[in-house]
Structure formats: C-alpha cells, structure tokens
C-alpha cells in the first residue's frame, strides 16, 4: 500500500525524507485552469519533484457553481477540459470532486433540480476524464461543510446513475466517521472505491494522533474489498509536514498490516 500527504509539491523533499510515497496536490493552485498555458509551470514542477503527484483535490473554485439558479455549464466544461488535460500532463490519475462551496444547494432551491445539475456536471466531466485517462471520484462531505452528498451511500447513488467507467467513489475516514456512517455502507461501495483520504475525527489531525479512531476495522473493509488504490492523509496541520510525519506513517503501515 502507498501512503501520501495532501500538501504542496514544494514540500515533496520533506515528505520523501519522512518515508512517504507521494503528495496529493490542490487542483486550483497546481493545475491553474484559469492561467494561460504559456504561464503554467506544472510539468516543470513535477519534473523537479522527488515524488509523484498521482491525485489532486479542491477541484472547483467556490464561485464556479454546480447547483443553483445560475449554473454556466459551458464555463464548467471549458474549465474541466483544461483541468483534465493538465492532470494528464503532470501524471495525475485521480481528481477528487468534493468542492463543497461549489456544489452547495442554495436555501430554498429545488433539491431534485440540484441533483440533476450535479449529474449533468459529472457526465460532462467524466467524458473529459475518459479522453485524458483520468479518474474522477465523488467525495462525500460532512453536513458541516456541505448540504448534499454527505455519505458514501449518497455518493454511490450518483456513481450508479451515471454509470461511467471514469467516475467512481472516494471514502474519507474523517467525513465517514463524523457522519457516523456504518462500515456496511463502505463495504457495499468497495467495487467502486478508487481513492481514500485519512484523518482522525478529533480536530482532523493526522491518523493515530488522537488515539480515538478505529483504523484497523476501516482498513479491514478496504482489504476485504481488494482495494488497489493509494491513501492520502488530509489533515490541515499536516500540510506543513510536521515532525510527526514519520511516526504517522509507521502507525498507518502497522494498522494496515494488522487489519
């Protein structure tokens, strides 16, 4: 199993020194879809990095709405076309569709229409993903961050409806545990799980630092489902690659081995 940290590629030397396998970048500052090709330096940054960038999250700017009374699908398509092309050029194989602010359903807006808008966005993006051999995964977000797609089970309704080979599902331990989602929900989704985010529920710290989360049972479901992807620690304090990076990695490897 390969473990990485959600952080800037500029931190890759420190991440590698601590024993990790990769970094997971942010789409907006790294792929910079709204920056002209001549000014974008993504390939050069990857070429100089000691670690690969197989995944990226923070897909959409908050102002680029996916739901609500005003959704510009042409602008979304153009944006995603650039994102997918640049992801392929930098070796990114997985893009995470969380983007809570962009997909937040406005108060009073028809939720069925919002779901239809999200499905339209996913279909557009999945076709572009296929063109560039990049997997798009749906991220469930807890209700404190977003008011739609709040569980793995709910994310899977979109995966099943779209039925596209380049649109699958992510599981994030932090959101999963905050919403008290049962492991049976993850187990049912395993054939479609293509990416994993990890963090403790207590303060969203790196795995093992709070000592209050059952990673072993979580990992056991992933193992039983023959998960073949990678896992990224997504914890705000971990972005700076703290001194605990090596011990956190040791903890994760131990829990995975014992699961």
The largest sheet is: 8 strands, parallel, barrel
Helix content: 40-55%
**Structural class of the helices, strands and pairings?**
alpha/beta
| Total DSSP helices | 11
Mean pLDDT score: 97
Instruction: Based on the coordinates given, report the CATH architecture.
Output: Alpha-Beta Barrel
Tertiary shape: globular
**Global Rg:** 18 Å
Percent of residues in β-strands? 5-15%
Unreliable stretches covering 5 or more consecutive residues: none
CATH fold name:
TIM Barrel
Strands, count: 8
Number of domains: 1
Please report the distance between the alpha carbons of the first and last residues.
13 Å
The named CATH superfamily = Divalent-metal-dependent TIM barrel enzymes
The largest beta-sheet arranges its strands as: 1-2-3-4-5-6-7-8
Oligomerization state: single chain
* Helix/strand order, N-terminal first: EHEHHEHEHHEHEHHEHEH
CATH class: Alpha Beta
């Amino acid at each position: 199993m390969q473990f990485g940290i959600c952080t800037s590629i500029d931190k890759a030397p420190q991440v590698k020194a601590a024993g990790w396998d990769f970094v997971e970048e942010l789409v907006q500052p790294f792929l910079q879809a709204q920056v002209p090709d001549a000014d974008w330096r993504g390939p050069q940054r990857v070429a100089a990095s000691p670690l690969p960038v197989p995944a990226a999250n923070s897909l959409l700017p908050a102002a680029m709405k996916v739901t609500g009374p005003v959704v510009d699908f042409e602008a979304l398509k153009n944006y995603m076309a650039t994102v997918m092309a640049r992801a392929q050029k930098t070796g990114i194989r997985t893009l995470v569709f969380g983007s809570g602010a962009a997909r937040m359903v406005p108060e009073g807006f028809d939720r069925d229409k919002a779901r239809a808008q999200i499905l339209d966005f996913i279909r557009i993006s999945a076709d572009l993903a296929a063109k560039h051999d990049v997997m798009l995964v749906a991220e469930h977000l807890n209700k404190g961050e977003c008011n739609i797609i709040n569980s793995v089970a709910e994310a899977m309704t979109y995966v099943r409806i779209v039925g596209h080979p380049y649109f699958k599902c992510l599981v994030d331990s932090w959101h999963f545990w905050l919403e008290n989602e049962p492991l049976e929900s993850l187990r049912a989704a395993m054939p479609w799980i293509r990416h994993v985010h990890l963090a403790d529920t207590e303060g969203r710290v790196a795995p093992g630092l709070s000592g209050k989360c059952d990673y072993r049972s979580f990992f056991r479901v992933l193992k039983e489902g023959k998960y073949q992807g990678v896992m990224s620690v997504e914890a705000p304090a971990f972005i700076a690659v703290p001194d605990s990076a090596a011990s956190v990695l040791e903890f994760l490897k131990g829990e995975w081995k014992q699961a």
